[in-house]
Amino acid sequence: VCPGDTSVLAGVYGPAEAKISKELPDRAALEVLLRPKVGLPGVLERSREQLLRQTCEAVVLGVLHPRTAVSLVLQVLSDAGSLLSCCLNAACMALLDAGLPLTALFCGVTCTLQPDGAILLDPTARQEQEARATLTFAIASTGRKVLMSTTKGSCSVEEMQHCLATAQRAADTIFQFYRDSVSRRYSK
Amino acid sequence: QVWQIRLDMHLLNHDGNITDAASIAGIVALCHFRRPDVSVQGEEVTVYTPEERDPVPLSIHHMPICVSFAFFHQGTYLLVDPTEREERVMHGLLVIAMNKHEEICTIQTSGVVMLLPDQILRCSKITAVKVAEITELIQKALENDQKARKEGGKFGFAESIPNQRITAFKMESAAVDTNDVEQQAGEIIAKADPPSEVFTNPVLHTPGTAQIGEGVESSWGDLEESEKEEAAEEEGESEAAAFECEKVKTEDTSTLRETNGDEPIVLSDSEEEEVVILKPQELPRKTR
């Protein structure tokens, strides 16, 4: 059975006026909302929101817009594996499309270590389940630096470095996709 | 024991008339849904997993579809299926829910417009025509989906997004060049410092609960700290404890106590101004 692909809808609102309780005096306050496909947002969504928030805070130039709020809303439309990296990519493209000032672009890559030692990029849900470890990295466009990494399962340091290097390679393809999409969107 | 059905609707784009869209989405979702098969023998209830037995559809008796009408100027002008702009300036709204057997399921008016009976009758005739078309579309879509699933083609939300539109982009899975990856990774590992501590594997008590290292019996009210096994018990936090003390919330797992007894312990967020380390090694208690 071939299920649908993972899709996430992302929307960025801001910089808009922030609530007094939430505003920061020197930078923009970034808030991320992740809505799952079924049910109400739970603890898993909250932890993912924080991961996304930390990643975005690293790239968004919040100091240019103090005392404002930037809202990033993500809606999961379908989940067929590699959800977190899909959210990261959607978030970056949304920030890009909204025209927010960014220091770098970022992309999300998921890597799994299969029991036989093989490394799989962008796994399907089944591959994720069978994997020994699933690692997700957020990789910046400048110098392919790592912005965020999260691991589920256990792996050795060498394996992690191996996955990271592979993910950095994959990031090239993703950034090329960003470029193509943006040029297509604005070519008209 | 009964089944509970939950219908979650996500509004992706609001360009008017969400009532109609939501009613169509809802009824199609319910028609499309498959629930696990159940067999009841007297008091015994067996629920089969989707692998054991194919899930069965819900029993849908009929499909009510909403159609909305916007009125302007006391019913002089009538618009079917208003867009967002039209909705904002309309004077009155009439919603009729009907099924393909031309039975009215719901009828609701709102706004400042007073409607005549023949206007409502006219609207219901329009509704009948619309509902017939929409029901046919729904049936066709459900059949296509069923066919695609049987034949093993691709189905689902991502497939239904049209590829040609400017705002939709698809990229087929691309191969990634990983020739030098091994070498690159090897270089990084060689340059990096080896990990300073080896952590014991977590012990799984029950699914969802794990323990790293062994707990230490709390010595509240205990003046002497028995110098116990320090190196044998590590937690992942022990390194962090030396640098980022604010992360460590000492509830019961006294992670602070596990650092080597001999080194001076830096408690950066200790509330005391002067940290006096008594002999034998009594750690100042955090007043949290």
From TrEMBL, chain A:
<dbReference type="GO" id="GO:0000177">
    <property type="term" value="C:cytoplasmic exosome (RNase complex)"/>
</dbReference>
<dbReference type="InterPro" id="IPR036345">
    <property type="entry name" value="ExoRNase_PH_dom2_sf"/>
</dbReference>
<dbReference type="InterPro" id="IPR027408">
    <property type="entry name" value="PNPase/RNase_PH_dom_sf"/>
</dbReference>
<dbReference type="GO" id="GO:0006364">
    <property type="term" value="P:rRNA processing"/>
</dbReference>
<dbReference type="InterPro" id="IPR020568">
    <property type="entry name" value="Ribosomal_Su5_D2-typ_SF"/>
</dbReference>
<feature type="domain" description="Exoribonuclease phosphorolytic">
    <location>
        <begin position="4"/>
        <end position="101"/>
    </location>
</feature>
<dbReference type="InterPro" id="IPR015847">
    <property type="entry name" value="ExoRNase_PH_dom2"/>
</dbReference>
<keyword id="KW-0597">Phosphoprotein</keyword>
<dbReference type="InterPro" id="IPR001247">
    <property type="entry name" value="ExoRNase_PH_dom1"/>
</dbReference>
<dbReference type="GO" id="GO:0003677">
    <property type="term" value="F:DNA binding"/>
</dbReference>
<dbReference type="GO" id="GO:0034475">
    <property type="term" value="P:U4 snRNA 3'-end processing"/>
</dbReference>
<keyword id="KW-0539">Nucleus</keyword>
<dbReference type="GO" id="GO:0071028">
    <property type="term" value="P:nuclear mRNA surveillance"/>
</dbReference>
<protein>
    <recommendedName>
        <fullName>Exosome complex component RRP46</fullName>
    </recommendedName>
</protein>
<dbReference type="Pfam" id="PF01138">
    <property type="entry name" value="RNase_PH"/>
</dbReference>
<dbReference type="GO" id="GO:0071051">
    <property type="term" value="P:poly(A)-dependent snoRNA 3'-end processing"/>
</dbReference>
<dbReference type="GO" id="GO:0016075">
    <property type="term" value="P:rRNA catabolic process"/>
</dbReference>
<keyword id="KW-0698">rRNA processing</keyword>
<keyword id="KW-0963">Cytoplasm</keyword>
<keyword id="KW-0271">Exosome</keyword>
<dbReference type="GO" id="GO:0003723">
    <property type="term" value="F:RNA binding"/>
</dbReference>
<dbReference type="GO" id="GO:0000176">
    <property type="term" value="C:nuclear exosome (RNase complex)"/>
</dbReference>
From TrEMBL, chain B:
<keyword id="KW-0698">rRNA processing</keyword>
<dbReference type="GO" id="GO:0000467">
    <property type="term" value="P:exonucleolytic trimming to generate mature 3'-end of 5.8S rRNA from tricistronic rRNA transcript (SSU-rRNA, 5.8S rRNA, LSU-rRNA)"/>
</dbReference>
<dbReference type="GO" id="GO:0071035">
    <property type="term" value="P:nuclear polyadenylation-dependent rRNA catabolic process"/>
</dbReference>
<dbReference type="InterPro" id="IPR020568">
    <property type="entry name" value="Ribosomal_Su5_D2-typ_SF"/>
</dbReference>
<dbReference type="InterPro" id="IPR001247">
    <property type="entry name" value="ExoRNase_PH_dom1"/>
</dbReference>
<dbReference type="InterPro" id="IPR027408">
    <property type="entry name" value="PNPase/RNase_PH_dom_sf"/>
</dbReference>
<feature type="region of interest" description="Disordered">
    <location>
        <begin position="205"/>
        <end position="274"/>
    </location>
</feature>
<dbReference type="GO" id="GO:0034476">
    <property type="term" value="P:U5 snRNA 3'-end processing"/>
</dbReference>
<dbReference type="GO" id="GO:0016075">
    <property type="term" value="P:rRNA catabolic process"/>
</dbReference>
<dbReference type="InterPro" id="IPR015847">
    <property type="entry name" value="ExoRNase_PH_dom2"/>
</dbReference>
<dbReference type="GO" id="GO:0071028">
    <property type="term" value="P:nuclear mRNA surveillance"/>
</dbReference>
<feature type="domain" description="Exoribonuclease phosphorolytic">
    <location>
        <begin position="2"/>
        <end position="36"/>
    </location>
</feature>
<dbReference type="GO" id="GO:0000177">
    <property type="term" value="C:cytoplasmic exosome (RNase complex)"/>
</dbReference>
<dbReference type="GO" id="GO:0034475">
    <property type="term" value="P:U4 snRNA 3'-end processing"/>
</dbReference>
<dbReference type="InterPro" id="IPR050590">
    <property type="entry name" value="Exosome_comp_Rrp42_subfam"/>
</dbReference>
<feature type="compositionally biased region" description="Basic and acidic residues">
    <location>
        <begin position="244"/>
        <end position="255"/>
    </location>
</feature>
<dbReference type="GO" id="GO:0000176">
    <property type="term" value="C:nuclear exosome (RNase complex)"/>
</dbReference>
<comment type="similarity">
    <text>Belongs to the RNase PH family.</text>
</comment>
<dbReference type="GO" id="GO:0034473">
    <property type="term" value="P:U1 snRNA 3'-end processing"/>
</dbReference>
<dbReference type="Pfam" id="PF03725">
    <property type="entry name" value="RNase_PH_C"/>
</dbReference>
<dbReference type="Pfam" id="PF01138">
    <property type="entry name" value="RNase_PH"/>
</dbReference>
<dbReference type="GO" id="GO:0071038">
    <property type="term" value="P:TRAMP-dependent tRNA surveillance pathway"/>
</dbReference>
